[in-house]
Amino acid sequence: MSRAVVSAVINDRARDQRISAETEQRVRDAVRELGYVANLAARSLKGMRKRILGVHTFESVFPIARRDFYHEFLTGVEEQAVIEGHDLLLFTSAEGSDGRRKLYTNGSNRLTAADGAVLLGVTDDHSDLFRLSQERYPFVYIGRRDVHGADIAWVGPDYATAARDAVARLVAHGHRTIAYVGYPQAQEARADREAGYRAGCRAAGIPPLSLLVNLEDLSREWFDLALATGVTALVVELESFANQIAACAAARDLSIPADLSVVALGGTESGPVSERKWSCVGLPRRAVGRAAVSLLVAMLDAPDEPFDHQILLPCTPPDESTIAPSPAS
């Protein structure tokens, strides 16, 4: 069987080349058996771009309201896709028996319906990302992702610098015992936030105090133990932690920020809307979405060109809503 016949079938030109249905089926069976996936980067060099960008979510994010965490990311993706002259194709993917969303179905990459894809959402399984990278399928992840053995493209908020600067802000207000409160589960964004907090403590010459706890376990007893260490300020991973801490403080007749300053490094899981106004770091969600699309289009336009493919965008510093001078000073 000639290479031209195989190429025609793979590129959906079998009828144009008058290839028999039997031969076409033999080629498709062989492709499926060998696990062949077309290299879209190579296709783009031959002018076969569809000008369609995929958007794949590892979490359920649709339908989406303005307050949802992913709303601004997706708004930025849509805005930049329009500017770049590309259509968007949404992939929600099939779920495996473990409930996790997969990029591959029966060994086939479902994203190949698009020229490339923007991926977002949390996933602990990086095997699909590694495979995409090995196949040279163009994609950009929203949020920093470490994939062992692969150097993938991503765009995300600079959580580490934001956390470091938050500590410096509290130190400038006289706080010397500043604790960090966040989830214990290891993920890139969480690791960056805690690393930035620790860097801020080192720069200020104060000891770090990481209090890693699940939100449902943040009780009044836990709060009392934290205060017993002499804490006068908290840097918390999300506003949801701050809301829980506020309830604990109120139960102990403590005032925020007079008795305890609090800085949040992100909005609640359901979006940047809270029961009260916190000194909260502003995440550049829309800018991240736009930058992810710009990077993906650049990869498609010049697949062999070297460029910065891992981008951190600065966050907006918090205001003084829940920051006050340390009562200890």
TrEMBL record:
Keywords of the record: DNA-binding, Repressor, Transcription, Transcription regulation
SUPFAM superfamilies: lambda repressor-like DNA-binding domains (SSF47413), Periplasmic binding protein-like I (SSF53822)
Taxonomic superkingdom: Bacteria
MF terms in GO: DNA binding
Keyword Translocase: no
InterPro entries, alphabetized: HTH_LacI (IPR000843), LacI/GalR-like_sensor (IPR046335), Lambda_DNA-bd_dom_sf (IPR010982), Peripla_BP_I (IPR028082)
Span of domain HTH lacI-type: 1-47
Descriptive protein name: LacI family DNA-binding transcriptional regulator
Record organism: Rugosimonospora acidiphila
Lineage: Bacteria, Bacillati, Actinomycetota, Actinomycetes, Micromonosporales
